[in-house]
Structures are given as structure tokens and as C-alpha cells.
From TrEMBL:
<keyword id="KW-0285">Flavoprotein</keyword>
<dbReference type="InterPro" id="IPR036188">
    <property type="entry name" value="FAD/NAD-bd_sf"/>
</dbReference>
<comment type="similarity">
    <text>Belongs to the class-II pyridine nucleotide-disulfide oxidoreductase family.</text>
</comment>
<keyword id="KW-0732">Signal</keyword>
<dbReference type="InterPro" id="IPR050097">
    <property type="entry name" value="Ferredoxin-NADP_redctase_2"/>
</dbReference>
<keyword id="KW-0560">Oxidoreductase</keyword>
<protein>
    <recommendedName>
        <fullName>FAD/NAD(P)-binding domain-containing protein</fullName>
    </recommendedName>
</protein>
<dbReference type="GO" id="GO:0016491">
    <property type="term" value="F:oxidoreductase activity"/>
</dbReference>
<feature type="signal peptide">
    <location>
        <begin position="1"/>
        <end position="18"/>
    </location>
</feature>
<dbReference type="GO" id="GO:0097237">
    <property type="term" value="P:cellular response to toxic substance"/>
</dbReference>
Amino acid sequence: MRPNLIASCSALALAVNGAVLPRQTSVTPDFDAIVVGGGPAGLSALSGLVRARRKVLLIDSGVYRNAPTRHMHDVLGFDGFTPAYFRWAARQQLSHYDTVDMINGTVTKITPGNSQNTYFTLATSSQSNLTARKHADQPLGLLGPLTDAPGAVRETVTLNSNVVAFVNGTDTPAARAETEKKTIKFITRLREGSTGHEDPSLPTVAEHDWFRVEFTEGLPVERAAFLASFPSEQTSNVGRDLGVQLLRGRLSADPTAGLVTNVPGVYAIGDANSDNVTNVPHALFSGKRTAVYLHVRLAREDGEKELNGTIARRDMDLEARALWDAVNGEPGDILYAGEFDSQLVFCWLAVDGKKRGVHSIPQPLTQLGSTP
């Protein structure tokens, strides 16, 4: 039981400004981040952080927006399931990471630790520990040009420090102090990482791949896995050929209008659009966002059609009434057939050599043809 928990970046700061603040404090935080709230958004944030081996605490109060509903929809793999089952399944998967802590409790207070907001103190009640790993702590190789290597190393430093960058001859004299220039001849797989008996329901299992990197000169290097850097581009030109504008090689989409493109009726979702995000949660989110926007727009169009149809029917009724008044005559005349009655009867009358549609014929006129 630890009533006061310290984090370098809280879920609140992460959500509001989207920035990770520099750590300029003598206080050693208990966690890299604290996620307050255990619903789908909180669980998704927790998943993204612990997969990068950040030490994260999730505090779940047990209060959820969709708690009253019986079924959850539009979540692939969980359509129709109860929200409680989804949360349970997500927790079960996340429990396989050893940098995650999940507790049930209510945060009563969040206090900035200093004026720079580099860490926060949260007041809460209890905690519990859960675990697992994948290529963490295994020797990694980075495939890509030298210019991409420093950033890739920084992104993987939380996974392990045993990393070799294979830049394939793209280094410069100024960068030779950072890496050894070698041109890759070929890569040979020495061992298959999967045994075929892994549990597919687990989010992560140990993998034992092993590769040898051969160079045009010098000794080979062996690695367990590689992180490759390569340019992204559209696999299809359908959008471009349709006239959709491209932004940095991707379909330009308007985030304020359901991710619609410059071509009306065409939407760009997932990693095809120009927001430069490539992951499954983003794809699910963008697809759902467009679906909701499009559904509302179609519903409005249907409403407008119905309204226009009502106006058209009203205009036809008024036209028929005016025509009736013109040919009906006055009371007492032989052609007088009574007042206009908008029963759904239709006939054609020749007026000024033109056929005009009339909605109804009052009963007296229907008997006119039999009058001597």
C-alpha cells in the first residue's frame, strides 16, 4: 500500500500537451507515466507505453462511460461483448509485461512536483504487480541509412542497449566515429524463432530468431532481430488517379470533416491518409471516425430528400388546386363540381392544349360524364 505515487509524466500531462517533459529533478520517480482511468483509452495508452518498456501505473476507479450498456460494438474481435469482458481481456494481455502496474482506486489529488511539471505526485490507495517480454534484452540490428540510425537507436534504448546499426555504406567521414562503414552482402537466417506451439492468445512470447549479416569485407555479425527503416509510399494509385491531392506521398484528408479528401465523397483513413500515423489503433480510430461522420451525413441527406419530397408534393397539390379553381366554375354553373378535395385520385385534363396533372377529382365531377 503506497498512498503517494510519483511519476515523471502523468496521463493528464500526456493527454493535454502531448509532450514528454525533460527530467530535471533530484526526485527519483516511481513510474515513467501514470494513466488515470482504466477504460479503452487508458488501456490503449498503457499498452503503447509498456510495449516500449516504460514503467507505467494504471489507476482504475471502476467508473466507465459505457458501464450501463450491455454490449460493446465496432471493436474488432470484441463486437457484441460486454465492456467489462473487454477490459478484463485487455488487462490479462497487459499483465504479461513486467513494467506495468495496475491498481483499482480513485485518484484524489494530483500535485505538480516542481514548477517545470517534470514530475507529479498522485494520492491514491493500493497497487498490484503483473508481467512478460518479447525481443527485449536480445541483440538487435538496425537496417537503414545512417541518417536514420540515431533516431532509431533512441527509440529502442528502452528495449536494450545491445544494438548494431547496419547502414549499408551510407556513412560519411564526419559520422565514422559513430559507426563502422560496411556494405551488406546478404543476411542469413540461422534459426527460426517460432516453435509452432506458442499460445496465440498471449500478447507476447519469447522468440529465438538468429541471423548472420555478411559484409563485402570484414567479419560477419550475428543478431536476433532487425528494425528496418524504409520509405513509405502508397501501394495503389487509385486515389491519385481519382484526383485526390497527395501530401508527403499520402492522401490528404481533412480531420475536421471526417477525413474527407478534396474529392467530395472520398475519404482517406488508416495509414493511407496524410496524418502520418501508422498503427492498428489509429487505423481503427480513423475508420470509426469516418464511419460516424459519414453515417450522420447520409442521415442528413436522407432527411433533406424527405423534406424536399414533402415540399414537392405540397407544390403539386397547390398547382392542382389552382387548376381546379380555374376550370371549376361558380356554384350553380353546370360545370361546377364542388370544392377541391385532395383525395389520391389522378387524371389528366387538357387546358390550353397542355396536359396538366390533378391530384383529385371531387365526386360531382366524376359523375359529369354521365350527365345528359
